[in-house]
UniProtKB/TrEMBL annotation:
Keyword Signal: yes
Family membership noted in the UniProt record: Belongs to the thioredoxin family.
Keywords: Disulfide bond, Electron transport, Redox-active center, Signal, Transport
Signal peptide: 1-24
Protein name, entry field: Thioredoxin
Protein encoded by which gene: trxA
Length: 165
């Protein structure tokens, strides 16, 4: 009986972790679900060339992080076939609208921009890169709930002492 319980709990925990993020090695493509190279409501799709101009030119400055933007940003590394990526996309769109004058929310399709994804060591998606105006960027993996994303925007990117609930 204990063995069955342990096996059940192990399967439950492992299924929770696999539902939170997708491995970049486990692809089932479905290109019709996330807009390609388009700005939707508020998020902005980036190519490698646009990244080098708007975010950071890591080719020119390989040893130093130098953010080029004029306001903080989040970069969503995603793939069109990734379930967790699809689940956080609406939250990112809503937050891009809510904070449109304060931050940028960029999206990078890891299938199309493999070199860029490799440069940042993206192995699991979704991966979010939080870029404050000052200081080093911070990464988070998985489908983060909207309230937690909002709190991270307010505390990490906008330096508000106490984030709203």
């Amino acid at each position: 009986m204990k063995l069955k319980r342990i096996l059940f709990l192990t399967l439950l925990v492992s299924s929770l972790f696999t539902s939170i993020s997708c491995s970049s090695q486990n692809k089932q493509k479905n290109d019709n679900t996330i807009n390609k190279n388009k700005t939707t409501m508020g998020t902005i799709a980036l190519t490698k060339d646009e990244f080098l101009k708007k975010v950071a030119n890591y080719e020119k400055n390989p040893d130093e992080w130098k953010y080029l933007g004029d306001k903080p940003a989040i970069i969503d590394f995603y793939a069109t076939w990734c379930g967790p990526c699809k689940s956080i996309a609406p939250s990112l769109e809503e937050l891009a609208e809510e904070f449109k004058d304060q931050i940028y929310i960029y999206k990078i399709d890891t299938d199309k921009e493999q070199e860029l994804a490799a440069a940042f060591g993206i192995r699991s998606i979704p991966t979010l890169l939080f870029i404050p105006m000052d200081g080093a960027p911070q990464m988070a993996q998985g489908a983060i709930p909207k309230k937690d994303l909002k709190k991270a925007i307010e505390t990490v990117l906008l330096n508000k002492a106490e984030a709203t609930k």
